[in-house]
What we know:
By secondary structure, this protein is an alpha/beta fold. The chain is built from six helices and five strands. It has one domain (2-177): Phosphoglycerate mutase-like (Rossmann fold). It has a five-stranded mixed beta sheet with strand order 3-2-4-1-5, with helices on both faces. Helix 3 links the parallel strand 2 (49-52) and strand 3 (72-75). Helix 2 crosses helix 3 and helix 5 packs across helix 6 (143-154). The chain is globular and about 50 Å long. The relative contact order is 0.25.
Amino acid sequence: xxxxxxxxxxxxxxxxxxxxxxxxxxxxxxxxxxxxxxxxxxxxxxxxxxxxxxxxxxxxxxxxxxxxxxxxxxxxxxxxxxxxxxxxxxxxxxxxxxxxxxxxxxxxxxxxxxxxxxxxxxxxxxxxxxxxxxxxxxxxxxxxxxxxxxxxxxxxxxxxxxxxxxxxxxxxxxxxxx
Length: 178
């Protein structure tokens, strides 16, 4: 099976540095334009299905790509963004040093989902998809989830102590075979 893993297009909150978490946000004008270009690049791939996070930004991204495919779109909660707790809706550059420490520690007391919890959720998703009879699957999700899919299918366990950077750019697609 070929998995095409895509991060959603840029949102207005991405653009201005606001932590989105599981808030529903639409793609920015630029996010739509870039996603449309990527959709044209993959229009000849015969996707059997598109599986997406249920959040608005991923569904919007999936729908733009699906204009060329007209396949079933499935929303899957396991592909949802990590819970960002009390930091959702905050500007990244407005966090105090203490808040940044709490955010990076992914504390439950701050309402956050840990990297380990997200990794297990994504591993469950990958294990479920492996038994499907599809040949080409497009998965539209979020940066950390996409990165964890990449880790799982390549057999690499992530270093949970150092996951602060971005791995997938907005609207980026990577192909994996499982």
